[in-house]
Amino acid sequence: MNALAQLGMVSELPSNIQMSSAPSSSDEDRKDYFVERDGMKFAGTHLLVDLWEARNLDDPEQIDRTLCEAAVTAGATILHSHFHHFTPNGGVSGVVVLAESHISIHTWPERNFAAVDIFMCGACDPHLAIPVMQRLFQAGRVVVDEQRRGRVA
């Protein structure tokens, strides 16, 4: 957390990005961002996306732009993003922090592989982010594992 604070990446106060009106202390006025789909109520959809035989895995600025575009396409609200470029292999690790959660990526250019983590709550559709990423990474094989997090019994 200290490293993020030094970079100015830590918010000092909780964000009110999800508030539709003036803040209220009443529990009845709080909006529930859980999702109801197929008769199930849950916090959000979590996609683990493996991109094999991928390209363009070593440019943090291009990856940042693409993941931000993917977030917006999925209906998410971007709060901030941060990416790190590793040497000597050129891999990139980074995250786009969303009001609805996050998109993170770790790339291995030497293996033509990227691991992407997409978690979104609310009305967002994380599946819409995949074609946007595929346009940049041009993966020969895309493997997606979906989990519904925070399932209510």
TrEMBL record:
Transit peptide listed as a keyword: no
Positions where Pyruvic acid (Ser) occurs in the chain: 101
Active-site feature positions: 101, 106, 121
Keyword Lyase: yes
Cofactor note: Binds 1 pyruvoyl group covalently per subunit.
Post-translational modification: Is synthesized initially as an inactive proenzyme. Formation of the active enzyme involves a self-maturation process in which the active site pyruvoyl group is generated from an internal serine residue via an autocatalytic post-translational modification. Two non-identical subunits are generated from the proenzyme in this reaction, and the pyruvate is formed at the N-terminus of the alpha chain, which is derived from the carboxyl end of the proenzyme.
Domain of life of the organism encoding this protein: Bacteria
HAMAP family per UniProt: AdoMetDC_1
NCBIfam families, alphabetized: SAM_DCase_Bsu
Top EC class of this enzyme: lyase
Family classification: Belongs to the prokaryotic AdoMetDC family. Type 1 subfamily.
A GO term, aspect molecular function: adenosylmethionine decarboxylase activity
Identification of the protein by name: S-adenosylmethionine decarboxylase proenzyme
